[in-house]
Amino acid sequence: MRNTRIVIVDDSLFSISILQDILEEKGFEVIGQASSLEETIEVVKDKKPDLVTMDMTIPGTDGLECTRAIHEIDGNIKVVIVSSMMDDEIVKKAKENKASGYVQKPVDPEEINTVIKSVMAGEELFDELEKIYFDVFKESFSNNLNKLTKTTPSYAGEVRLNNTEKSRGISVVVGIIGKYSGRMIFDLSYETAKKMATVALKREVKDIKECLAMSGEFANIVAGNACSILNRKNKVLGLRVAPPTIFHGKSLNISKTTLDTISVAAKTQFGEMYLNVGFKRGEE
């Protein structure tokens, strides 16, 4: 990622000084500043920044009008709101005006560093994710199966085809959000789930509900652990998992998706399990 050129818009010279010091310490290039709508238009036209940090309180106007003026000059310039106010209504209005991020004052250096890098990250970040994510999910699957049942899976060849497949009986879908959106599917038969749950619980399962609950929680752990590993590799990703959704029945299909997905069949002592993970290019 090339060095990001930044203009600071704020009506407080004190705030500008603090923010400039933070940004330059983090390796960004501060190329200008402004404290009014007129100055903002002038400096953006002259300096052509990659990103503008925008205070919400500007004499005679506000940060939203300044943001609209910037995008009239160049729609590719990113705007990150930096304000003492942060509530749902303000954040909503900022998003409606195509602000790319929001940081509350007093500015935390690590937070604004992460926000700016996330905003400026392009295709290279997705390419980095695409190279490693499936290995990370497989590692998480193997490690957590071993922790839960003291067994180790083996894997068939990975498949990148995005076709509709017939479910084995139980499908758990875990949504993933963050810099990029994604999804993990964990699929297995009732019999496999029952055998796995029996070992994990160290007793016979009471009913199908326990099998479904075990399947959902196992999928949640696998996806959560994998996302944590990916975030440690690059915290700009900011990946988080949604609660698992469990489907089961005799005529389920795993449908095609717009995501770029990879699938693999895991051979375990309980039976075959299916893992499918994918992420989508573009913003969340």
From TrEMBL:
Q: What does this protein do?
A: May play the central regulatory role in sporulation. It may be an element of the effector pathway responsible for the activation of sporulation genes in response to nutritional stress. Spo0A may act in concert with spo0H (a sigma factor) to control the expression of some genes that are critical to the sporulation process.
**Sorted alphabetically, which keywords does the UniProt record give?**
Chemotaxis, Phosphoprotein
| InterPro entries given in the database record | CheC-like_sf (IPR028976), CheX-like_dom (IPR028051), CheY-like_superfamily (IPR011006), Sig_transdc_resp-reg_receiver (IPR001789), ST_Response_Regulator (IPR052048)
- Spell out which residues are annotated as carrying 4-aspartylphosphate: D55
In this protein, which residues make up the domain named Response regulatory?
Answer: 5-120
Q: Which PANTHER family match?
A: TWO-COMPONENT RESPONSE REGULATOR, TWO-COMPONENT RESPONSE REGULATOR ARR22
The uppermost taxa in this organism's lineage are: Bacteria, Bacillati, Bacillota, Clostridia, Eubacteriales
Which Pfam families does the UniProt entry name for this protein? CheX, Response_reg
Check the record and name the CDD domains matching this protein: CheX
Q: What is this protein called?
A: Stage 0 sporulation protein A homolog
Phosphoprotein listed as a keyword: yes
